[in-house]
Design a protein that fits this description.
This protein has three helices and seven strands, in the order βαββββαββα. It is of the alpha+beta class. The protein has one domain: Yope Regulator, Chain: A (2-Layer Sandwich), CATH 3.30.1460.30. It has a seven-stranded mixed beta sheet. Strand 6 and strand 7 form a beta hairpin. InterPro entries: TfoX-like (IPR047525), TfoX_N (IPR007076).
Amino acid sequence: MKQVKHVVLYGVSCAMSVSHELLDFLLDQLAPLGNVSARRMFGSMGVFLDGRMFGILSRENRFYIKTDANNLEKFVEQGCEPFSYWVSQPSGERKQKRLSYYEVPDSALEDQDELMFWARLGVSASMPSG
């Protein structure tokens, strides 16, 4: 059995629908990146490398990667969908918000090399520009 190092989980024991098995699997697959961790964030899990968030595991158990001007087209070309959520407005209306995170292709969850390709794009996008 492969030994995983540098994986830290924060707040995983809370009641939410994120699959702990999927989270453990993702963290295991992403461990070659380095100090990968996950933290509860509004019912989902933020996925971090050295304190910088580059991914989101949603409560619907979908894995999203941070995008920017340099990598967004790759996600769009693959038909990946953006992470979105609904916010209630003071007027009572609900408005959909989209973040700059896009779901990885389904095939990436079955192939560690492909998952690492997408994850590295997200890590790069999470770095400060300049």
